[in-house]
Write a structure and sequence with these properties.
This protein is α/β, with parallel strands linked by helices. It has four domains: 2-119, Response regulator (Rossmann fold, 3-Layer(aba) Sandwich), CATH 3.40.50; 131-310, Rossmann fold (3-Layer(aba) Sandwich); 315-388, Helicase, Ruva Protein, domain 3, CATH 1.10.8; 408-447, Orthogonal Bundle (Arc Repressor Mutant, subunit A). The protein is 47% helix and 14% strand. It has 20 helices and 16 strands. Strands 2-1-3-4-5 form a five-stranded parallel β-sheet, with helices on both faces. Strands 7-10-13-6-14 form a five-stranded parallel β-sheet. Bound molecules: adenosine-5'-triphosphate and magnesium ion (MG).
């Protein structure tokens, strides 16, 4: 049963019509008191609530109603409906515990999708499944880990994969954010459509729109052909917005619009395109802190994180280190045809004690490098120690993209973005790490339209 709260009879009637058409049972109430009477009698599966009450009521009263409802039963999922003009009201509502918000005038398809997702997410009960149980039902093939906290993450992945809920994946570098994003797609109903990855840390402000939404021939100087954007390529599938914390405020607005309406226009085109994409984002930044500091839009934050998955650092799940090391070793045994390869117990213990600031990626590289650099098959502590402490020129052999995939300038730009991030935007250190002078760095920041705060 869906409860619709709105003081406008016409809105109630059209929402009821829409929902009944799609086989939802619904009840309509016009005001605060009737809504509360209903809630006391019966728990609806979902509440659809208009915040922009007309003449008689204000948004504040909408908020109050929301809070009172949740006081009766905090588990009731509520979707708010507000106009663009009062988006901040929707955000206050999200803070108070609403699950989602839809802008008015509403688009039927978006509204139905939000209802479907919110119901699906709230109806799944959290149960504790073992890793083995999960593997029987889901495809987590090459994801290693039996640590309790980590298995709980996989369980959430399983639970939400088939919904269209937007997911925000948080975690330090190398904790497996991309791997988890792929697993979400792989276990979803969208698995046969495309999974499109976009690295937002590597896209400048000026290229953002063309990259994400595409452009028409002649949209700007140098646009010699029509180009399809990433959103359009991801239609029917999943878009993975990696490093979303790097996005400038100007680009954030543009992204919000497409996430809100699931529609956009290519640069130089007046035609609005509709898309059906599932959005997964990831960042190693603390986004809620960025929101507080005003560098990340709050409305966008709520739009992308209906569900948040926080991946543990490897040191928080050190028990998985031997499993991971054994997994990578097994791959290498086959790859290099060295069936005798093994890690001595004492070396395994030693590995487990390391802090691995680069997390799983660092462990993986360490095992690979140690195997390559050691002639004997039985690997000992010293073999690993030697490689761990060695400064390296390149992280791993395939750190560079395929030839033709990127221009030298693009690589230069990405490296600068990465170094800026690594050194927390301390220009002196960044210049040092890149082997250039401070002035040379400033010139490049300028050239690539990067601010000292990132993109
Ligand atoms: N649970 C896991 N089991 C096996 N391999 C893993 C696991 N998690 C991560 N890896 C491997 O570690 C490497 C880093 O993973 P991934 O790229 O997903 O991390 P990330 O969090 O996106 O890193 P970054 O923040 O640097 O982008 C990849 O090679 C991936 O295959
Ligand atoms: Mg990544």
């Amino acid at each position: 049963m869906i409860l619709i709260v709105d003081d406008d009879q016409a809105v109630l009637a059209s929402l009821r019509f829409l929902l009944r058409q799609h086989d939802y049972d619904c009840a309509c109430v016009k005001g605060h008191q009737t809504a509360m009477d209903f809630i006391h009698k019966q728990r609806p599966d979902l509440v659809l609530m208009d915040m922009n009450f007309s003449v008689k009521t204000t948004g504040e009263e909408g908020l109050k109603l929301l809070q009172e409802m949740l006081k009766v039963d905090a588990s009731i999922p509520v979707i708010l409906m507000t106009g663009w003009a009062s988006l901040d009201l929707a955000i206050r509502g999200m803070k108070a515990g609403a699950r989602d918000f839809v802008s008015k005038p509403w688009d039927n398809r978006n509204l139905l999708k939000s209802i479907e997702t919110t119901l699906a997410v709230s109806q799944h009960q959290a149960v504790t499944l073992s890793r083995q149980c999960l593997d029987e039902q889901y495809d987590f093939g090459h994801i290693i880990g039996e640590d309790k906290g980590f298995v709980q993450i996989l369980e959430s992945v399983a639970r939400i994969a088939q919904t269209d809920a937007s997911v925000l994946i948080l975690g330090e570098n190398g904790t497996g954010k991309e791997l988890i994003a792929e697993a979400l797609h792989q276990n979803s109903l969208r698995r046969d459509s495309s999974f499109v990855k976009v690295n937002l840390g590597g896209i400048s402000n000026s290229l953002f729109e063309s990259e994400l939404f595409g452009h028409k021939k002649g949209a700007y100087t140098g646009a010699a052909y029509d180009r399809e954007g990433r959103f359009s390529l991801a239609n029917g599938g999943t878009i993975f917005l990696d490093e979303i914390g790097e996005l400038s405020l100007a680009s954030q607005v543009k992204l919000l619009r497409v996430l809100q309406d699931q529609s956009f226009e290519a640069l130089g085109s007046s035609q609005t395109q509709k898309v059906d994409v599932r959005v997964i984002s990831a960042t190693n930044r603390d986004l809620s802190e960025e929101v507080e500091q005003g560098t990340f839009r709050e409305d966008l934050f709520y739009r992308i994180n209906l569900i948040t998955l926080k991946l543990p650092a490897l040191r928080e799940r050190a028990g998985d280190i031997p499993l991971l090391a054994a997994f990578y070793l097994e791959n290498l045994r086959r790859l290099y045809k060295r069936p005798g390869l093994c890690i001595k117990d004492s070396a395994m213990d030693w590995l487990q004690e390391q802090s691995f600031p680069g997390n799983i990626r660092q462990l993986k590289n360490l095992v690979e490098r140690t195997v390559l650099m050691t002639a004997k098959d039985r690997l000992e502590i010293d073999d690993f120690r030697l490689q761990l402490n060695k400064p390296r020129r390149s992280k791993d052999g395939n750190a560079l993209p395929e030839v033709g995939a990127m221009t030298l300038e693009e690589i230069e730009r990405e490296m600068i973005v990465k170094a800026m991030k690594h050194h927390n935007h301390k220009v002196v250190e960044v210049a040092g790490a890149l082997g250039i002078t401070r002035n040379a760095l400033y010139r490049r920041l300028d050239k690539y339209n990067l601010s000292t705060k990132g993109v």
